[in-house]
Design brief:
By secondary structure, this protein is an all-alpha fold. The protein is built from 14 helices and no strands.
């Protein structure tokens, strides 16, 4: 029932976003704009999407390295299938697929795998929120929608900054972080607070292993490269639809898109993806162009990303590194895995020793 409600809510959000995007638009004109586009630009765009996939796979491996040295073949397969799940499952339930698929207890614990993905998401959230805040400074005052986007950028930045502070507190003082989390939830439901605090405790245990300073520097360098390449992709595909986006404009589109797809929606992030592109283009392109070529651009970009991620995921779906049933069971299995590991950590602490993190090579 919980999953059904999430799916229905996601579909409702997607439907509402699509309705707002297409309300009052000439669908025939949008179709003609899509037909008239120069699809030769799809060739370099797909090459950029492939580069993006490998960059984020290597970057994730850096975060997992203190836990286990995972062969690139396995890491690549899990990344491909995990990002496919994120794209096709509603309400962003696919976020749990990647950490669960890579977990291989006892060498790679669920808590450690999940913590690596959370750290990755926090870094991306802070980077793109700051990017959006600064690029919006170049948009003329009084532009429709500018104030809303600036507020959204600041709110996203504050949310991820707060999460970063919590991670730092958890890393330095696990007991304090767990108490803070428990007190925040206790007024809502003491039972929920107790259960959630236990899972957070296990999660923070997984956070304890961090890469070396050199690897941390490499992680942030790859984060910069990752988002730089994403921005180039926005520029490249836009040319096929007659939009000559400058540096600031391209990264404004990228920042708004990232914030937009953070909203849980239906399968494929449909609706929120297109709405974010349209909203960002409307900041600096004529309304008539946005209504036709802008809608075509948004939908082709969405379809291209969906195709690339699903194609990569399907290519590795039946490899020896992936168990198909784990993908749909990931959210529940992640929760149960954290509860199990929390009990193990508690038992080990009562015995005077903590469980050792795996350092073996995962096969």
């Amino acid at each position: 029932m919980k999953r059904l409600l999430q799916a229905v809510a996601g579909l409702a959000i997607s439907g509402g976003a699509l309705w707002l995007t297409l309300r009052g638009k000439d669908l025939g004109a949008i179709w003609e704009a899509a037909r008239a586009a120069d699809y030769r630009w799809l060739v370099p765009y797909f090459a950029i999407l492939v580069a993006i996939h490998f960059i984020r796979t290597v970057r994730w491996g850096i975060l997992l390295e203190p836990v286990a040295r995972i062969p690139f073949a396995r890491l690549n397969a899990v990344s491909a299938v995990g990002f496919m799940a994120l794209m096709i499952l509603p309400f962003r339930l696919g976020e749990f697929a990647r950490p669960y698929l890579v977990a291989e207890r006892p060498r790679v614990r669920v808590s450690a795998a999940l913590s690596s993905v959370v750290v990755e998401r926090v870094a991306d959230g802070l980077f793109t929120a700051m990017l959006l805040i600064f690029t919006l400074l170049a948009v003329p005052e009084g532009t429709p929608g500018l104030h809303v986007l600036r507020v959204a950028g600041v709110l996203v930045f504050l949310a991820f900054a707060a999460l970063l502070v919590f991670l730092v507190v958890g890393y330095r003082n696990r007991a304090l972080a767990v108490r803070i989390f428990h007190r925040l939830l206790d007024p809502v439901s003491p039972r929920l607070a107790e259960r959630a605090a236990g899972m957070v405790d296990a999660f923070i245990h997984g956070l304890r292993l961090v890469p070396s300073k050199r690897k941390v520097a490499l992680f942030f360098l790859l984060t910069f490269v990752y988002w730089a390449v994403n921005g180039v992709g926005v520029q490249v595909l836009a040319r096929g639809f007659g939009f000559d986006l400058g540096f600031v404009q391209a990264y404004t589109v990228l920042g708004v898109l990232v914030v937009g797809v953070m909203i849980p929606a239906g399968p494929g992030m449909v609706g929120t993806f297109q709405a974010a592109i349209i909203l960002s283009l409307s900041l600096f392109a004529p309304a008539e162009a946005v209504a036709t070529r802008g809608n075509a651009y948004a939908n082709v970009m969405w379809a291209a990303q969906l195709f690339q991620q699903v194609a990569f995921g399907l290519a590795f779906l039946f490899s020896r590194h992936i168990k198909l049933g784990q993908i749909f069971a990931a959210p529940q299995e992640m929760e149960e895995g954290l509860e199990s590991e929390e009990a193990e950590y508690a038992a080990a602490e009562r015995g005077g020793q903590g469980p050792r993190a795996g350092d073996a090579r995962v096969r």
